[in-house]
């Protein structure tokens, strides 16, 4: 009995101790680690204000972590470190780790001051980073270890960062990836990434009818479904469906391509690619004569519905469901790239299969982007809490360099060589590695065009490097036809093209399509932070619109559609849409004027 | 002398019990009381990454906003409907436990118990995938009536706005029925078997035994659980509803917890989310106290 009592008391004591230790461990451990690492580098996180002597000493091996929303996690990536990352690690005597953040984990790390050494944030976090003093001022390293960031070529981007992303301090804390230089001229690449998606074998069977607009596309999808009403396994076939876990994206994005707009976050507002004017996308009461992307997209889905082509689960399918249905062969068209799994599967089964999705040009060709201040919504900074600030700055600076940009797009030197004409070109082995499906592992290990690091490097694909070649050698004019797959070759043969993207080129030349060449997306970077009351209104409007989708998409007649639209507009008005429109219009005009003045 | 020793021993025993309760008190303090500090965020315009004193002080602005927000009423209505249906179904695990207890064959009883308890350990994500495979338009169960020629067109329950309350409750019950019945099975095991024997001698059958012995013996447990359930009236959780939410079901499926998640975490409007949560906590406390007082009036004893 006594033994039982003692053991009960011991258990209770152990549980209490465990509980306390468990709750306290995390903070202590972090503190200990930070202290240790801080002492290694001789600089702790809180002293960013001190003008410490900049050291480029690389003798000590350290770990540099880089985290961001939409970045992958190096622990779970199939290949890490790749050949390209290994080169970086050797160059700076570091181990590079990637960490994936979502909004919650990033906010948590920002609040606790425990972010990665290099962090990528979007516009929503800029204010918190600056007010919370989480970012190192990069200008302190301008003449020493951040020369790539502050190179002359990056001066416009740097000016934009100082003017619009510094909380009025006129200092540079952030850098953006993929900066296009003013004199860069782009081609359309080998194939298109966005447009009218069709399954090539079926499209070919119906005689490759020209698709100039949504109606042509619907007609083509109808004809394709007639010859392929169900899969080989007997499953029903549909034209396409929506990915409802991305809010309104499947609707307004479809419309952006059809009408020539790019969207602002959330798709409540859109930017005209040609005039750079801002338009309310959904609440179009002030611009009833313009068919905005959202309404264009919704009409498209409604027409598909009325034709019996739309997946009946269109309003409930999520991205994963879409991928699964594509893989089963249940779709013959599409709005976004969920078909890649199907393409890979069919290609693996038969390298010369025509059962592949290809993309035909819409009104807007998503090409020739001029990211003069880099990609918007991706801002990298070095954390002031990093125990290795200087090494992190060095790594970030290298990521911004021409050398790394070339590496990630074209491979490390050796994967490409300087030819007899003095210009760089990809080797035959590299080309074969990409096109030969049996060498996929080797291709992955090389790290060329690896998704995560591709969105990190400093320079645009089309920029001309010092050696006279493009950053991305795959985009050299003579290289474009060499990297085509079997189906792309068949497409070119059938439609009498050199490369599939020539379809867009011809349409642009004929004035039937436009590209992104005139779009000043830098205005989006210059926009001031949206006040919370406007964010609340926009979020509410988005939700109201989502709830109204069934009435719009499943309207049986034009009258029913018009009534559903009217009801939605009235509901949006009641939710404060006009206040939102007024704020956005003013903020856009201000940002546009400021950008034009510094250009 | 002996009396003094007894008092000391009693005191010692009390301290021992108190000492054993310390870990649990600590746990409650750490996980239930310390987070109340977070309520302070509701009076600031909190920006993640900025120290609280550096954020703008908003006073009761976010609480005022609650009364202007039309979504609060809608989500509160949905929460209430789910909660009321849930409250009406609270006897279900008890009834299930009684029925299970009446199954004569031991292996069959164990099989049923295991079979009904297992869904409790399946995550909502997997349940959603299963539901999609079964109940989407091409799903096995939805397309069955069409294949059998019973209907012309398949109608997916996942996209039926009017069925949201019942379908989601059905899924919730399917998931938790076996697990919730365990406590009642334990209560049944604790009933004095002599009562059953005496009743059988008096000619009572299975039904009479269940009605006059099992059911009254479990009523105490039921009342305790009922009051606890009332306390959780507004805590419907959000995972299930978030997964099954789509544009067709959204107006009916968005409950208060999901709305707080959307406002707080998706729109990063933490302060407003906290303000809504505070109001929710007060309403929950009020409900528990009311339920407790009602129980006292009806049964003469209370739980808290």
Describe this structure in words.
- The complex is a heterodimer of chains A (599) and B (304).
- Chain A is of the alpha+beta class.
- Among the domains of chain A are: 152 residues, D-Maltodextrin-Binding Protein, domain 2 (3-Layer(aba) Sandwich), CATH 3.40.190.10; 246 residues, Periplasmic binding protein-like II (D-Maltodextrin-Binding Protein, domain 2, 3-Layer(aba) Sandwich), CATH 3.40.190.10.
- Chain A contains 22 helices and 12 strands.
- A 4-stranded mixed beta sheet of chain A has the order 2-1-3-10. Chain A has a 3-stranded antiparallel beta sheet with strand order 8-4-9. In chain A, strands 5-6-7 form a 3-stranded antiparallel beta sheet, sandwiched between helices.
- About 6% of the residues of chain A have low confidence.
- The two termini of chain B are 39 Å apart.
- Helix content of chain B is 71%, strand content 1%.
- Chain B is built from 14 helices and 2 strands; from the N terminus they run αββααααααααααααα.
- In chain B, helix 13 runs antiparallel to helix 14.
The most extensive interface between chains reads:
A-B, 47 and 38 residues
CATH superfamily of the domain at 60-104 and 165-299 in chain B, please?
MetI-like
What gap, in angstroms, lies between the N and C termini of chain B?
39 Å
Note the total helix count of chain B. 14
CATH fold title of the domain at 60-104 and 165-299 in chain B: MetI-like fold
Helix/strand structural class of chain A: alpha+beta
- CATH class category of the domain at 60-104 and 165-299 in chain B: Mainly Alpha
Q: Counting H and I runs of at least 4 residues, what is the number of helices of chain A? A: 22
Name the beta content range of chain B: under 5%
Unreliable runs of chain A: 18-52
Count the beta strands of chain A: 12
Q: Regarding quaternary structure, how should these chains be classified?
A: heterodimer
Q: Name the poorly predicted regions of chain B.
A: none
> Which range best describes the helical content of chain B: under 10%, 10-25%, 25-40%, 40-55%, 55-70% or over 70%?
over 70%
How does the helix and strand content of chain B classify structurally? mainly alpha
**Rounded radius of gyration of chain B (Å):** 25 Å
Query: Any idea what the radius of gyration of chain A is?
Result: 27 Å
- Topology as H/E string of chain B? HEEHHHHHHHHHHHHH
Major beta sheet, strand line-up of chain A: 2-1-3-10
